[in-house]
Automatic annotation (TrEMBL):
<dbReference type="GO" id="GO:0050545">
    <property type="term" value="F:sulfopyruvate decarboxylase activity"/>
</dbReference>
<dbReference type="GO" id="GO:0050532">
    <property type="term" value="F:2-phosphosulfolactate phosphatase activity"/>
</dbReference>
<comment type="similarity">
    <text>Belongs to the ComB family.</text>
</comment>
<dbReference type="InterPro" id="IPR005238">
    <property type="entry name" value="ComB-like"/>
</dbReference>
<protein>
    <recommendedName>
        <fullName>Probable 2-phosphosulfolactate phosphatase</fullName>
        <ecNumber>3.1.3.71</ecNumber>
    </recommendedName>
</protein>
<dbReference type="Pfam" id="PF04029">
    <property type="entry name" value="2-ph_phosp"/>
</dbReference>
<keyword id="KW-0378">Hydrolase</keyword>
<dbReference type="GO" id="GO:0000287">
    <property type="term" value="F:magnesium ion binding"/>
</dbReference>
<keyword id="KW-0460">Magnesium</keyword>
<dbReference type="InterPro" id="IPR036702">
    <property type="entry name" value="ComB-like_sf"/>
</dbReference>
Length: 238
């Protein structure tokens, strides 16, 4: 079994893919499903999301870290956490995480969303489904590598290595090294460029929330089907 970590999305994934956008899209996605959402629709563009408004969907997303005009929510797990989304589908579009999910879905056989909050459950799910490779794909920020995503990849890589034998690539070695040398999750996320940026925007609570380790067993799982609106990917709780 191979374990591969892409520090940025590359594509050509033959088997299991775990998409990571710790700050904040995949952390928020886990929270929506934990709070009862039936499904998530991750869109290719904000316009696709806005086109679904008024069809009983709630819209969540951001640009520049701030809520998109016309959307119901930003991209904040702390905003999502106290809400009840039972019976709702949340449509998401964000700067990095939703795009990385679309890259993964082009070829991946089994695509899951992972964060620190569901790290252990995501690793177990990946190991259970994989037949040849687990690819951990870091979304990054604006096509640049993000410490928060690489750190999370290292945490999940550690869990995977505890679950079975893997041959690992250089990306996995880098992620494991970052995980072992960047302190605890909150220290790592707080020291990242994006973590500092979110704190400067007054969103430091989201950074603290995203640093909680394995507090959720929800693993957002891509489901393929013809009934999915064009330009969207449907994820349900797995
Ligand atoms: O909302 C976020 O944290 C980021 C937006 S940005 O990098 O601050 O512009 O989006 P994400 O897609 O969750 O990385
Ligand atoms: Mg991000």
């Amino acid at each position: 079994m191979r374990l591969r970590v892409d520090l940025l999305p590359h594509g050509h994934y033959p088997d299991v893919v775990l998409v990571i956008d710790t700050l904040r899209a995949t952390t928020t996605a886990v929270t929506y499903l934990e709070r009862g959402a039936d499904a998530l629709l991750l869109t290719s563009t904000p316009e696709v999301a806005l086109g679904l408004k008024g069809e009983g969907f709630l819209l969540g997303g951001e640009r520049g870290g701030l809520p998109i005009p016309g959307f119901d929510f930003g991209n904040s797990p702390v905003e999502a956490q106290p809400q009840n989304f039972t019976g709702k589908t949340v449509v998401m579009n964000t700067t990095n995480g939703t795009g990385a999910s679309h890259v993964a879905a082009q070829t991946g056989k089994h695509v899951f969303l992972a964060a620190l909050t569901n790290a252990h459950a995501a690793a177990r799910r990946a190991r259970a489904q994989a037949t040849e490779e687990v690819a951990i794909v870091c979304a990054g920020t604006d096509e640049r590598v993000g410490l928060e995503d690489v750190y999370t990849a290292g945490v999940i890589a550690e869990y995977l290595l505890a679950l079975g034998e893997f041959s690992i690539d250089d990306g996995a070695r880098i992620a494991l090294t970052v995980r072992r040398n960047s302190g605890n999750p909150l220290e790592a996320l707080s020291s990242s460029v994006h973590g500092a940026r979110l704190s400067n925007l007054g969103l430091g609570e989201d950074v603290r929330y995203a640093a909680e380790l394995s507090t959720s067993t929800v693993v957002p799982t891509l489901v393929q089907g013809d009934d999915v609106p064009e330009g969207t990917l449907r994820f349900i709780a797995g």
